[in-house]
Predict the structure.
Amino acid sequence: MVAPGLRVLFCGINPGLYSGASGHHFARPGNRFWRALHEAGFTDRLLQPSEQEQLLASGIGVTNLVPRTTAAAAELTGEELRAGARRLRGLVATLAPQWLAVLGVTAYRSGFEERAAAIGPQPVTIGRTRVWLLPNPSGRNAHEQLPDLVRRFRELRSAIDASSPG
C-alpha cells in the first residue's frame, strides 16, 4: 500500500500470521498501530485494518521490511532483515516519501546495521527522505504502553507537519 510522494511511509517488520491471512497491515486485534495513528492525529477517525487503502488519500503509506509471514518477528534472520532494508531503501528512493517511519527498534538496528539507533529521528536519510524510528506497535511489545506509543507518533506527526511545504 504505497504510492509516490507520500508524506510518510510507515514500515512494519513483517506480517504476522493474522495479517498474512487477512492481507491487511497490523491486523491482529491487539496491535496498537491503528489506535496510535488515530490518537496522534494522522487520521480523523479510528480506521480498521480493512480500511488501510484510505490512508493513501492522506499521504500515508504502509509496507513491511520483510514480506515473509511469521508467528513472531524473532523468527526472521539477520540476512532477511538486511535484505529487507536494501529493498526498502530502493522503494524509498523510487517513491520519495518525505518521511520513512520504521516500526521496530531491534529490526531496524539489525536490518540497517545501525546498532546504536534509538527511537526518534535518525541521522541518516535515503535520498531526501528523512528517517524516524518508532517502537513496534504489536501488543506483544510490553515496553511501550499505548499512551507512550501515541506520544511518539505525535512527535513524528509534529516533525512531518513542521517539514511540510505550505
